[in-house]
Design brief:
Blueprint (H helix, E strand, L loop, with lengths): L8 E2 L4 E2 L4 E2 L4 E2 L4 E2 L4 E2 L4 E2 L4 E2 L3 E3 L4 E2 L4 E2 L3 E3 L4 E2 L4 E2 L18 E3 L4 E2 L4 E2 L4 E2 L4 E2 L4 E2 L7 E4 L4 E6 L5 E2 L7 E4 L6 E5 L2 E4 L1
Length: about 200
């Protein structure tokens, strides 16, 4: 693996096309392919067999586990976690015989969100800050900040703190709770969560 203090670490089996931007301290592991238009921030980790498309923006400190393909028109903000073998799409109604490259839909994953192992994010949605998508869930609509989502199709079953702990708060109505790990306070009012 190549490494210097201000450069990313790139495994010798990885393919990084000319033009790709990879921030300092990032690690690109075995058999990764990063296309030339990709922009990847600092301190990221791209696990074995990850693919990153041309029209992809990845923030700082993003962790992408093994076997994840981040296709064109996907944006991952800082501190996003992508679990092993989770799936992004960029065409809503693909057909092999019909070219739809001009129909890609944008997908945005906001700061601090977690996408669990083997979940699927159908294109054209926004995943809110610090949301938590459970393993195997299929997300086909926008996800609120701090929401805990499970199932097929995914539905909200709770709230999560920024530290990734489940909060004892109602989905509807009002309530207040503290993160069991950090003690940070959260309040839900009429189905909307706020921190502090």
């Amino acid at each position: 693996m190549s490494t210097t203090a201000n450069e990313p670490t790139i495994h010798e089996t990885a393919i990084v096309d000319d033009g790709a931007s990879i921030g300092a301290g990032s690690r690109v592991w075995h058999f990764v392919h990063v296309c030339g238009g990709a922009v990847i921030g600092r301190g990221c980790s791209l696990g074995q067999n990850v693919f990153v498309g041309n029209k992809v923006s990845i923030g700082d400190n993003v962790k992408i586990q093994n076997n994840v393909s981040v296709y064109d028109n996907v944006t991952l903000e800082d501190d996003v976690f992508c679990g092993p073998s989770m799936v992004f799409t960029n065409v809503y109604n693909p057909r092999s015989a019909v070219s739809r490259k001009d129909e890609y839909r944008d997908t945005t994953v906001r700061r601090g969100a977690t996408l669990g192992a083997n979940c699927t994010i159908v294109c054209g949605v926004e995943i809110g800050e610090h949301a938590f998508v459970g393993a195997g869930a299929v997300v086909n609509r926008d996800v609120p900040a701090h929401a805990l989502m499970v199932g097929v199709p995914a539905r909200q079953v709770g709230w999560m703190s920024a530290a990734g702990e489940r909060l004892d708060l109602p989905l509807e109505g009002d309530g207040e709770a503290a993160c069991p790990l950090t003690g940070d306070r959260y309040r839900v009012e009429r189905g909307n969560l706020s921190a502090g």
